[in-house]
Design brief:
It is a single chain. The protein has a domain at about 5-70 and about 95-170. Residues about 1-5 and about 100-110 have low confidence and may be disordered. Helices cover about 85% and strands about 0% of the residues. The chain is mainly α and about 210 residues long. It contains eight helices and no strands. The radius of gyration is 18 Å and the shape is globular.
């Protein structure tokens, strides 16, 4: 197969996944979980999220369709469930008074867990990103083309790491009050995005299961 076609497919998959993943939207939550100006802490947390995002998307490419079929879960139901998680995350951001200080091991453990859920999934590797990766893999002609989508997910993970690793610079420019404003605004946006995912999933599920009278 010509190399230029492979490159075109790779670029198409990469651009689509990065656009849907949109790691910038996860910055307020990430900053609230990784307080302080320590660049090493931000890089370590970015490593954790980037690895999780790659694992989730690569797993979706290789096993996503099989897992959903195994449990009898439709794409519509998966989208609605992911939207509910996004909505709850947005509500939590709207209620939050200020970034929680991680002063005890239990709080630190909770923050580490929240780097995976909801930051890595579903804020970045959300239903739309996962379904897109699964669809691109399903459209590939044979297992030999799956590596193109897998390589695109690796680029997405690298982009996620870069954005989150530079979050300390963003935090310093915003300040505490600016960060609180951004967190609340993005919380409202996430509530709207989550509601749209839920409603879209419900409508799609009803339409797929509707029987003609």
């Amino acid at each position: 197969m010509p190399v230029d076609i492979d490159i075109g497919d790779f670029l198409q998959a990469t651009v689509a996944l990065i656009a849907i993943a949109n790691p910038f939207a996860a910055l307020p939550v990430f900053l609230s979980l990784v307080p302080g100006d320590n660049p090493a802490s931000h890089r370590a947390a970015a490593n954790r999220v980037a690895v999780a995002v790659f694992a989730i998307l690569a797993g979706a490419v290789l096993l996503g369709g099989f897992v959903l079929d195994l449990f009898g879960i439709s794409f519509a139901a998966f989208r609605a469930g992911g939207g509910l998680v996004v909505t709850l995350t947005g509500l939590d951001m709207l209620r939050r008074q200020q970034p929680a200080a991680q002063e005890d091991p239990a709080a630190a453990l909770s923050a580490a867990d929240q780097l995976l859920v909801p930051v890595a999934m579903p804020l970045i590797a959300g239903p739309g990103t996962i379904i897109t990766a699964m669809t691109m893999a399903a459209r590939a002609n044979g297992a030999g083309r799956t590596w193109i989508v897998l390589l695109a997910t690796a680029v997405v993970a690298a982009t996620v790491w870069l954005v989150l690793a530079l979050s300390g610079w963003v935090q310093r420019r915003l300040g505490t009050r600016g960060q609180a404003i951004v967190v609340r605004f993005m919380g409202l946006v996430l509530v709207a995005v989550g509601a749209q995912l839920v409603l879209g999933g419900v409508v799609e599920f009803i339409a797929a299961n509707a029987r003609p009278s």
